[in-house]
Amino acid sequence: MLKMTVTSPEMTMAIGQQLAPGLRAKDVILLDGDLGAGKTTFTKGLAAGLGIKRNVKSPTFTIIREYQDGRLPLYHMDVYRLEDGSGDELGLEEYFNGDGVNVVEWSKFIADELPEHYLRIIFKRDDAAGENQRTLSFEPHGDHFDQLVAQLQASCHE
Ligand code: ADP
Ligand code: MG
């Protein structure tokens, strides 16, 4: 498992940006960690890496926001407020099997609706170490995501 420690929002965005080139349609990226841990900040970087120019805003109240102006569509979801089992109504499966990259904040709320393969990234604050410090842990499930994480690791050591 890959772990990275960052000390600024910009560093978190840069990692999201570096992940983007290896992404393809139907990819599912799960972002977990407390409120303010950096999940949306990471998604901003990922969106920039896909060439999305629009400002990425938290989908907390809308549950999903769609961005179509990049190399691939980005479906950014925050399922914190999704009622139990209502992933069907949202059309989760259609999104996961669709034409874009799926980024899901708070995936524990759709634990029963996850696809077989995905990349989970866990964000942790460490206030004792500094207000802006975060540890990102990458947990790939499936070959494609193993490769993606290996590429990310390589690109961060360049
Ligand atoms: P989440 O989506 O996990 O609730 P956000 O990305 O919306 O979190 O908010 C993270 C907040 O923490 C932002 O205000 C951001 O500026 C701040 N922050 C401080 N340090 C970091 C860091 N290293 N990575 C990401 N965000 C950070
Ligand atoms: Mg968020």
| Computed Rg | 15 Å
The H/E string reads EHEHEEHHEEEH
What is the general shape? Answer: globular
Taking the alpha carbons of the first and last residues, their distance comes to 19 Å
Percent helix:
25-40%
**Strand line-up across the major sheet:** 1-7-6-2-5-4-3
Please outline the major beta sheet. 7 strands, mixed
Write the layout of secondary structure elements.
Layout: E1 2-6, H1 9-19, E2 28-32, H2 39-49, E3 64-67, E4 74-78, H3 87-90, H4 92-96, E5 101-105, E6 118-125, E7 134-141, H5 143-156
Parallel strand pairs: 2-5, 2-6, 4-5
Antiparallel strand pairs: 1-7, 3-4, 6-7
Helix pairs in contact: 1-2
This protein binds adenosine-5'-diphosphate (ADP) and magnesium ion (MG).
Magnesium ion binds next to helix 2.
Describe the structure.
One of its GO terms (molecular function) is ATP binding. This protein has 158 residues and is α/β, with parallel strands linked by helices. The chain has one domain (2-156): Rossmann fold (3-Layer(aba) Sandwich). It has helices spanning 9-19, 39-49, 87-90, 92-96, 143-156, and strands at residues 2-6, 28-32, 64-67, 74-78, 101-105, 118-125, 134-141. A seven-stranded mixed β-sheet has the order 1-7-6-2-5-4-3. The longest helix has 14 residues, at 143-156. It starts with a strand and ends with a helix. The relative contact order is 0.23. The structure holds adenosine-5'-diphosphate and magnesium ion.
